Amino acid sequence: MTLAVLQRETLGYGRTAVLPEVSFALAPGERVVLLGRSGAGKSTLLNAVHDRLAVSHRVALVPQDHALVPQLSVLRNVLMGRLDDHGAFYNLSNLLRVRAADRSGVAEVLAEVGLTDEIDRPVHALSGGQKQRVALARAWWRGGAVLIGDEPVSAVDETQAAALLDQARARFETALLALHDVGLARRIATRLVGLRRGGILFDAPADTVGDAEIAALYAR
Ligand SMILES: Nc1ncnc2c1ncn2[C@@H]1O[C@H](COP(=O)(O)OP(=O)(O)OP(=O)(O)O)[C@@H](O)[C@H]1O
C-alpha cells in the first residue's frame, strides 16, 4: 500500500521542468529524507507529494518559510494547525477569546518544543529558531497521518534539532522531510532519496546508502 505515488511525472514551474519524469512513492511507516544541493528540487518534490496526499489524508506541513502570521501570538499561530477541524464561528470566536481547553492543549505542545514562556508573544518578536519551533508546534498540534517538513530544523542548533526530530518520529507514523544535515538525516530516515541534476540519484533504505554516495550528491 502507498500513500502517494508519482509515476514518471514532470514537476516544474510554468514551462520549466525541474524534475522531468520523476517517479516516487511514499508508504505508511516510512520516514523519507530528501537530500541534495540547494536548487536540486527537494521543495518541488515535497510540495508535489503534499498536494497529492492532502486530498485524502490529514497531513501536517512545516513549510520552508514557516507560513506564520507575524502579528498574531504564538498561541493563535499554533491553533491554526486545526482550523479545518472547526467551522468559521468557532475559529473566529476562538481567535478573539481562546477557549481554555485549546490554550492548555497548545501549552503542552509549546512545552515540548521549549516555547512555554513565548505563548502570548507576537511571532514577529521571536528569533528565527523560535519561529521555526512555532511552525513545528503547529504541526504537532495538527497531528495526522503524515508529517511533511521542508528543512524543518534548519534554524535551531544541532542538539535541539535532534530532539525535535525525535519528537517528530514519536508523533507521526510517516514522514517526508528535506534536510541538509546528513547526520540528522541518518538519525531519522528509514529511506534516503538523493536528488541531483533534475533527477533521483539514489532512493534506498537509509542503512544501505554509503557516505560516498551522499558526497557525490554535493560534488561540483
Ligand atoms: N515558484 C517557483 N517558480 C519558478 N521556479 C522555481 C520556483 N520554486 C523553485 N523554483 C526553481 O526550481 C528549482 C528547484 O527548486 P527547489 O526549491 O525545489 O530546490 P531545493 O532543493 O528545495 O532548494 P533549497 O535547498 O535551496 O531549498 C530551482 O532551480 C528553483 O529556482
Question: What is the gist of this entry?
Answer:
With 220 residues, the chain is α/β, with parallel strands linked by helices. It folds into two domains: 1-58 and 144-219, Rossmann fold, CATH 3.40.50.300; 67-143, no CATH class. It has helices at 42-54, 74-79, 88-96, 100-112, 128-142, 158-171, 182-188, 211-218, and strands at residues 4-13, 16-26, 31-35, 59-62, 146-150, 174-178, 191-196, 199-205.
Key features of this structure:
single chain; 220 residues; alpha/beta; Rossmann fold; 2 domains; six-stranded mixed beta sheet; two-stranded antiparallel ribbon; 8 helices; 24% strand; binds adenosine-5'-triphosphate
Task: Give a written overview of the molecule.
Its EC number is 3.6.3.28. This is Phosphonate transport system ATP-binding protein. Keywords: ATP-binding, Hydrolase, Nucleotide-binding. It is a single chain. The longest helix has 15 residues. The chain contains 8 helices and 8 strands. It has 2 domains: 134 residues, P-loop containing nucleotide triphosphate hydrolases (Rossmann fold, 3-Layer(aba) Sandwich); 77 residues, no CATH class. Strand 7 and strand 8 form a beta hairpin. The strands form 2 sheets. A 6-stranded mixed sheet has the order 4-5-6-3-7-8, with helices on both faces. Strands 1-2 form a two-stranded antiparallel ribbon. Helices cover 39% and strands 24% of the residues. The structure holds adenosine-5'-triphosphate (ATP). The site of adenosine-5'-triphosphate has 12 residues, from helix 1.
